[in-house]
Amino acid sequence: MRQYHQQLHEWVSLPKDRLDLNQHPLQQSLDLGGSFSVICMWDGAVCADSHSTGGLILKDERDFVVFVLGLFFEVMDDPLVVETIALREAIQWCRDIGLAQVQFEGDIEILIDKINAKDARGSRVGAILEEILHTLDIHRGFNV
Q: Name one GO molecular function term (predicted).
């Protein structure tokens, strides 16, 4: 129970958005500009009321959660589109805060296969995939 309460307290105290980063900066061990590597787990989901949600969790080298960010998308009912946009947002967020080495992990194999094959053709998310591939080309330390 003590461990549960400690983890709950740590989760509640994490920064939840960019404004909250000013009050609760990322842990000092997180080197935002160096060769430090973090894991960014992303996910997206279509909800029953025709909106969609997603988010990302950023973990450090000790596997500790150091940041969470929730996403909300209006009127989207295609799970592939939602997952792709959630990944794009995660990549852009990590780029914007200056991370140099990020391993992105998600649970949608078809999207990950397309990215690893560098193939945006023949997909209803082709334009978003091209944007993701372009960003990954520029930021060589980002891997999906």
A: nucleic acid binding
Amino acid at 102: V
Question: What are the structure tokens assigned to 72, written together?
Answer: 């909300």
Q: Write the CB contacts of 62 (distance below 8 Å, at least 6 apart in sequence).
A: none
**Domain range summary for the chain, segments of one domain joined by +:** 15-143
- The predicted model scores a pTM of 0.73
Tens of pLDDT along the chain (144 residues) come to: 776 666 666 656 655 554 444 444 444 334 444 445 789 999 988 887 767 888 888 888 778 888 888 887 776 778 888 899 999 999 998 888 888 889 999 998 988 998 989 888 877 888 888 999 999 988 888 988
Q: What is the C-alpha separation between 125 and 144, in angstroms, rounded?
A: 17
Query: Residue 106, SS3?
Result: coil
Rounding to the nearest 10 degrees, give the CA dihedral for residues 85, 88, 89, 93.
180
Say how far apart CA 18 and CA 1 lie, in whole Å: 31
- Largest alpha-carbon pair distance within the chain? 51
